[in-house]
């Protein structure tokens, strides 16, 4: 498998899940740094959805990246630590400026 990099949009297998967690085979944004991804056997990722979200910032973020073809929303509250075995094909990436905004939204939720 190619290196899993921070900012990658990749397919991931999220099942099994519990409660309100995002389920199924779906795109995720890789948030963790490259060294962590390479050495830990896991990644920290955030689920995407193509369903319009009622909740605004900081709970969701409209992904406007030109590097991903489908209009999507990041579910900032749906952050997960996933085994690299769950991570599949790269389908796009987000620019550094967008990544900064996304992490800022996460910080608003947890700080």
Task: Indicate the topology.
Layout: E1 8-13, E2 25-30, H1 34-40, E3 42-49, E4 60-63, E5 72-83, E6 87-93, H2 96-110
Antiparallel strand pairs: 1-2, 1-6, 2-3, 3-5, 4-5
Task: Describe the structure in your own words.
The chain is an alpha+beta fold and 111 residues long. 20% of the residues lie in helices and 39% in strands. A six-stranded antiparallel sheet has the order 4-5-3-2-1-6. It is globular. The model has no long low-confidence stretch (mean pLDDT 87).
List keywords for this structure.
6-stranded antiparallel sheet, 111 residues, 6 strands
Distance between the terminal alpha carbons, to the nearest Å?
35 Å
The arrangement of helices and strands along the chain is EEHEEEEH
Q: Give the spatial strand order of the biggest sheet.
A: 4-5-3-2-1-6
CATH architecture: Roll
pLDDT < 50 stretches: none
Per DSSP, the total helix count is 2
Give the integer mean of the pLDDT values.
Answer: 87
Class in CATH? Answer: Mainly Beta
Question: What percentage of the residues does DSSP assign to strands (E)?
Answer: 35-45%
Number of strands: 6
How many discrete domains? Answer: 1
